[in-house]
Design a protein that fits this description.
With 577 residues, the chain is α+β, with helices and mostly antiparallel strands. The protein has 17 helices and 12 strands. The protein has helices spanning 4-7, 16-46, 51-72, 76-95, 104-107, 110-120, 122-142, 147-215, 235-241, 245-248, 262-275, 318-374, 381-413, 425-439, 459-475, 507-510, 532-542, and strands spanning 219-224, 230-233, 277-286, 292-304, 307-316, 421-424, 444-449, 454-457, 482-490, 493-499, 546-552, 556-564. The protein has a 5-stranded antiparallel beta sheet. Strand 3 (277-286) and strand 4 form a beta hairpin. It starts with a helix and ends in a 13-residue tail after the last strand.
Length: 577
């Protein structure tokens, strides 16, 4: 059951269109309720004997209340149809006592047709037009088709039809417009709600963002792009600047930049304005108390409180610089210690080499000298000559050792000079190979060349390079093995390779093979000074070239010497070797 106060208020439904129609019908029912008493008072006052109108008025009030109850149950269109039919029936019944088509009340049927068009649409209006026309036609038939009555019927039917058509078209147009309006209103409502939710989310995000800035351990500040005044600093930035919000906020950003960093920071700020960000950079931050700290800074552009701004996050580099300096000092100390260790090792290697390489020749010289002194009268000329040759050979060995040390010392101190001369490189290398082939007949020296022409080179330095590489190849290779020497051109460089099939260089020794007094761990039983390859490396460097090698233990070693080619003119004198 519905209480009367509730019936007097229009119902609400989830569908906006249904709610709109229910409100319209509810207003019509209210109109019936309000008009009925007025009609009853007028009838009683001016037509005291007209009881029919009084009954209609009372019935209309109760019918309206009943239809309101039906409307609140959700039967909106059914209520509208019943209302239109009751109004139409009331007009029909009111017109019958006065002659039907002969009375003006019949013409008033256009009113329920109009209401039906508004409430029910074109179909409802068409239904009442058909019923009205049918009732009028029945009266025309019953009275025998009198011309006046028939003409009135046609006129009324035409008026009813035009009214129904007009109201139908109007209803359709208005309904479409209303529907679109409702859709737009609905979209606007959703858009407003979405904007509201977005604004709330942005507000919450902004609050979280500011909370994050406040709690961030990194110093963060925001400056205005145009005025370049400080808009915000978090507590970490205030601690770094050694200021308070009152002494920092609103101040020019340049106030906190060290003088030597002003120009650089201004360039970076312009870069942020132009590109939206600036890569990390270092600058001097001036504190409120006048101190300067080095900071590393990263900046981006953004909107801050609806202002175009630049957010900068920076870290204090003081501790980092100290740690960096400590690491640098530690690295330098380590390098010095490594260098000292290397010098000590070189010294030990030199003393070991010198004690061995000098002691042996001296022992031989001393032994031969004693033999000559003590047994001079017993030795024939042949034996005396042998001892003298042994003394000469060992003296030559010592001289070569001292020459190698002198050459290495000159190269290390920069005294050794390069004296380039026009040189037929192929002829020069072939001559050196032939000389060494005679000195080492127990090996097969094979020389191949593909580099004719005359070039500027220092023959003395180049001879040392070839001599030491071929001597080493012979020394560390088995007897009767081949030693391949090649000379060829690669672009603007001459490439000399010396390949043996000997013991090779162990991988652990290869990194230090060009260091003085360093020898392969597998060559300790073979006499040597450890000076040959360092001299080769120094000479190659002086010639502007490079030297590399490839080596495999028990397979062999190949050295590659690359020297720049500088051709000479035909007028330059040629030195042949």
């Amino acid at each position: 059951m519905y209480s009367l106060p509730r019936l007097l208020h229009p119902p609400e439904f989830p569908d906006p269109e249904q709610t709109r129609l229910a409100r319209l019908i509810h207003r019509l029912l209210w109109a019936v309720i309000l008009i009925a008493p007025v009609s009853m008072v007028i009838t009683i006052t001016f037509v005291p004997n007209d009881d029919i109108n009084t009954v209609f008025a009372i019935a209309g009030i109760f019918a309206a209340l009943g239809l309101m109850a039906l409307l609140h149950r959700g039967y909106v269109r059914t209520t509208g149809l019943i209302l239109c039919l009751l109004m139409w029936g009331s007009f029909i019944l009111a017109s019958l006592p006065y002659g039907g088509l002969h009375d003006r009340f019949f013409t008033y049927l256009v009113l329920p047709i109009l209401i039906a068009g508004v409430v029910l649409g074109g179909k409802g209006a068409a239904l009442l037009v058909v019923l009205s026309s049918l009732v009028g036609f029945v009266q025309v038939v019953r009275e025998g088709f009198p011309p006046a009555l028939f003409s009135g019927w046609i006129g009324n039917t035409f008026v009813f039809s035009i009214t129904a058509l007009v109201i139908s078209l109007t209803y359709t147009a208005l309904n479409g417009t209303l529907r679109r309006t409702l859709e737009l209103n609905q979209q606007l409502y959703f858009e407003i709600e979405r904007h509201k939710r977005t604004s709330e989310a942005l507000g919450a995000s902004d609050r979280r963002y500011k909370q994050l800035l406040e709690l961030a351990p990194v110093a963060i500040s925001v400056i205005h792009q145009q005025t370049q005044t400080v808009l915000y600093t978090n507590p970490a930035a205030l601690r770094l600047i050694r200021g308070t919000p009152e002494t920092v906020i609103g101040q020019p950003a340049t106030m906190f930049v060290a003088p030597e960093s002003l120009e650089y920071v201004a360039q970076k700020i312009q870069e942020v304005i132009d590109t939206g960000h600036a890569d990390a950079f270092d600058w001097g931050l001036r504190q409120v108390n006048g101190g300067v700290v080095q900071v590393n800074n990263f900046s981006v552009s953004l909107l801050f409180d609806q202002h175009p701004a630049i957010l900068s996050a920076y870290t204090d580099l003081t501790e980092y610089k100290r740690a960096q300096e400590a690491l640098l000092q530690a690295a330098q100390l380590k390098a010095e210690m490594e260098q000292e260790k290397r010098y000590v090792q070189l010294k030990e290697n030199f003393l070991s080499m010198a004690s061995h390489q000098l002691r042996t020749p001296l022992s031989i010289i001393l032994s031969s000298r004693n033999m000559l002194v003590e047994y001079a009268d017993r030795l024939d000329d042949k034996r005396r000559r042998e001892h003298l040759d042994r003394i000469s050979a060992q003296a030559l060995t010592m001289t070569n050792l001292l020459n190698d040390l002198l050459t290495l010392s000159k190269a290390s101190s920069g005294i050794l000079q390069v004296r380039p001369e026009p040189l037929a490189l192929d002829t020069f290398c072939g001559t050196v190979v032939e000389e060494l082939a005679l000195a080492f007949p127990q090996h097969k020296l094979i020389f191949s060349e593909k580099l004719p022409g005359i070039y500027l080179l220092d023959p003395s330095l180049l001879r040392h390079v070839l001599h030491n590489l071929i001597v080493n190849a012979s020394k560390y290779s088995p007897l009767d093995s081949e030693i391949n020497i090649t000379l060829e051109r690669d672009g603007e460089e001459a490439v000399i390779s010396v390949r043996d099939h000997g013991m090779g260089i162990p991988p652990d020794d290869q990194a230090h093979i060009f260091d003085p007094f360093i020898r392969g761990s597998n060559a300790r039983s073979i006499p040597g000074t450890g000076l040959g390859l360092p001299i080769v490396k120094n000479n190659v460097d002086l010639l502007g070239g490079s030297i590399t090698f490839q080596s495999t233990v028990n397979i062999g070693t190949t050295f590659f010497v690359r020297l720049p080619l500088r051709p000479v003119t035909a007028s330059t004198s040629l030195r042949k070797n």
